[in-house]
Amino acid sequence: VLKIYDNYQLDTRTNEYISPAQRNEESLLVDTFLSTNVLSAAMRFLADKGFVRKDYYDYKDTLRRMWFNLYSRGEGKIGSSGFEHVFLTETKLGTEISGLHNWIYFNAEEVKKRADYLGYIKKVDLGDKAAIVKFHAKFNNIDKPVTSMFIGTSPELEMALYTVCFFARPDQNCPVSLGGTKFNIVTHKFRYRGYDLVGSAYPEI
C-alpha cells in the first residue's frame, strides 16, 4: 500500500492525473487485497446477499470503481477518490484536513514530520493487538480537531469492513464486532456520474 501513496495530489482543488502505470499499481493492490482471506470472504458475503455478482472480476471491478474512481468535491476539479480520502488524506481550500483515517499512512507521514499526533480523545482495544483511536492531529500544520482510525489492523481488513458497510448500511451506523468489542463503522456514499463511490469511511467510537 505504501507504493501508491505518491500517486495522489492531496489538494481537492487540483485535478488528479492517474497514469496507466499508476492504474496498474491500483489494480495490483486490489488483486493483492482480494488474495487475502478477509477481503475475499467479505466479497463472497456481499455476493450471497445479492449486492454483487459472485465472480472474481466483478469483485475487482466493484472495488476498483468504488475506491479508486476519481470524482469532484467542488470547484470543477476532479481531485478526489475514496481511497485517497480514507487511506491517505485530503486538504480543502488549503485550510482544512479531511479523511486521514489510516494508521499506516499516518505513521509514515509522522516519520516525515508532516503529521503530528496531539493526544487521544477516546481509545477502544480490539483484543490484544489492535485498537480504535479517536484523536486530535495536525497535518502539514493544519489542525484536524477529531479523526478516528484503526491501529494495528491490516489495510485489507479495513477495506473489507468499510466495503461491507458501504453496501449493507451506507450513511448510517453499521454495527461491527472485532476481538469481542462492539463498535460502529460509518460510510458515506458519493454519487458521481451514475456511480455510488466511497465519500468517506471510518470507525466510530
From TrEMBL:
Domain EndoU: 1-205
Signal sequence region: none
GO molecular function: hydrolase activity; lyase activity; metal ion binding; RNA binding; RNA endonuclease activity
Classification via CDD domains: XendoU (cd21159)
A Pfam short name: XendoU
UniProt keyword list: Endonuclease, Hydrolase, Lyase, Manganese, Metal-binding, Nuclease, RNA-binding
Cofactor(s) recorded in Swiss-Prot or TrEMBL: Mn(2+)
Family to which the UniProt record says this protein belongs: Belongs to the ENDOU family.
Subunit composition and interactions: Monomer.
Protein name: EndoU domain-containing protein
Organism the protein comes from: Bracon brevicornis
